[in-house]
């Protein structure tokens, strides 16, 4: 019953926002052009893993810089462990169902950092109740450190980022967005109804490895069309850190990266199989490694579709013994030889943040709800020329 009501309210808000966006819908031309300062600005991506956060900057000239890796404080680790292992508020495994509450929150409180949360904290202070830092504050603490490191790297204030996260069902995009608002940062996710509301690590890593990237990214719909006839991949993402293992299956509708609905189809989280546990345990080593191998096989075995890609993330995933175990366990699954090939093209520690930065970089060049007129590129050429001559004269 509640689900139904939520669904209707969500559809209604979605419909209203579509109608109200009618005058500047994506089928129309923009009135203004993006200035060079936005169009050529570096794209910034953050990845919030259960253990640390990473920041990557993707510059207009194509240079990609891994800016920072910052360990979460004990509160952050505890929060993430809780979110990783708890069920979402709504007990439903369907992806779109899970989208509902956050979507509602986003539409009801579009730009303010939820007034209810503020009010609730204010009330508690008045009543003399001690208030512990809540999830939003804990997350914003780590985001702030990433922000500072990034601003130093790009030597300008940071305005907008794309944040990717593991996709735990209890960690809602609304929570991450609220944490960004605390810091005065805007997000590249769901800034208009045409763009996705969430970017999970699996998707970001898929894109960072060069998959599903359209050529014509200036046009949201043409971009999707490029992949209309491609077979849908089933991606197995293995994330490994010193304190935990988590694996996800990403099941796409087409092979396009950054899909509109981004959520792992299935996920496995195991805090007992982190690298530290495996290395510390002298006696039962074989038992542990055997368990690791079988845990790695669970999702691929249960998956309705055959795995087409195996992608890696996390700072411990390149440990030789872990890689050997992974290779062994995957070869037992008799996937095709091409699939079983485990790719190590980019550093798995920064893979997800690279994907997020790439997403941000591409979005810098595109207005979110209209098409730029053709003369915009010419205008920017002139603008860039003027800036460079002014700088030469200095
Ligand atoms: C790209 O731009 C960045 C920042 O302005 C600069 O540090 C880097 O050297 C440039 N790379 C190339 C290949 O020009």
Structural write-up:
45% of the residues lie in helices and 13% in strands. The chain starts with a helix and ends with a helix. The strands form 2 sheets. The protein has a 5-stranded mixed β-sheet with strand order 3-2-1-4-5. Strands 8-7-6-9 form a 4-stranded mixed β-sheet, sandwiched between helices. The protein has helices spanning 2-20, 36-39, 74-85, 95-108, 115-126, 135-154, 173-182, 201-208, 220-225, 275-280, 285-302, 320-331, 337-340, 351-364, 375-393, and strands at residues 43-48, 52-58, 64-71, 160-164, 186-187, 234-240, 245-251, 266-270, 309-313. The protein is α/β, with parallel strands linked by helices and 394 residues long. The protein is globular. The chain has 2 domains: 31-85 and 94-203 and 352-393, 2-Layer Sandwich (Nucleotidyltransferase, domain 5), CATH 3.30.420.40; 226-345, Nucleotidyltransferase, domain 5 (2-Layer Sandwich). The chain binds 2-acetamido-2-deoxy-beta-D-glucopyranose (NAG). 2-acetamido-2-deoxy-beta-D-glucopyranose binds at residues 59, 61, 63.
């Amino acid at each position: 019953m509640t689900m139904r009501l939520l669904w209707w309210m969500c559809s209604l808000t979605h419909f209203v926002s579509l109608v109200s966006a009618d005058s500047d819908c994506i089928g129309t031309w923009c009135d203004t052009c993006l200035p060079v300062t936005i169009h050529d600005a570096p794209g910034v991506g953050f990845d919030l893993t259960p253990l640390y956060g990473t920041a990557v900057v993707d510059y207009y000239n194509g240079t990609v810089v891994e800016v920072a890796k910052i360990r979460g404080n004990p509160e952050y680790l505890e929060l993430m462990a809780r979110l990783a292992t708890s069920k979402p508020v709504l007990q439903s495994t369907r992806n779109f169902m899970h989208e509902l509450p956050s979507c509602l929150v986003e539409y009801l409180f579009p730009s303010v950092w939820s007034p209810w949360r503020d009010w609730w904290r204010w009330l508690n202070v008045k009543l003399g109740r001690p208030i512990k830092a809540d999830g939003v504050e804990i997350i914003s603490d780590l985001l702030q450190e990433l922000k500072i490191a990034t601003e130093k790297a790009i030597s300008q204030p940071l305005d907008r980022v794309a944040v990717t996260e593991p996709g735990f069902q209890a960690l809602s995009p609304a929570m991450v967005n609220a944490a960004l608002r605390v810091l005065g940062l805007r997000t590249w996710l769901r800034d208009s109804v045409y763009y996705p509301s969430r970017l999970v690590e699996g998707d970001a890593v898929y894109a960072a490895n060069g998959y599903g990237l359209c050529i014509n990214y200036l046009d949201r719909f043409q971009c999707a069309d490029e992949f209309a006839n491609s077979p849908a991949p089933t991606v197995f993402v293995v994330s490994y850190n010193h304190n935990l293992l988590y694996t996800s299956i990403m099941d796409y509708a087409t092979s396009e990266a950054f899909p509109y609905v981004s959520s792992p189809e299935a996920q496995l989280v195991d805090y007992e199989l982190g690298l530290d546990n495996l290395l510390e345990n002298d006696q039962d080593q074989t038992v542990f490694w055997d368990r690791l191998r079988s845990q790695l096989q669970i999702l691929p075995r249960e998956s309705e579709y055959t795995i087409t890609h195996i992608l890696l993330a996390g700072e411990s995933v390149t440990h030789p013994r872990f890689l050997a175990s992974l290779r062994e366990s995957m070869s037992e699954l008799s996937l095709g030889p091409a699939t079983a090939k485990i790719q190590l093209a980019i550093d798995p520690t920064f893979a997800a943040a690279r994907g997020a930065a790439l997403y941000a970089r591409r979005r810098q060049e595109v207005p979110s709800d209209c098409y730029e007129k053709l003369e915009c590129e010419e205008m920017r050429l002139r603008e860039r020329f003027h800036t460079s001559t002014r700088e030469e004269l200095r």
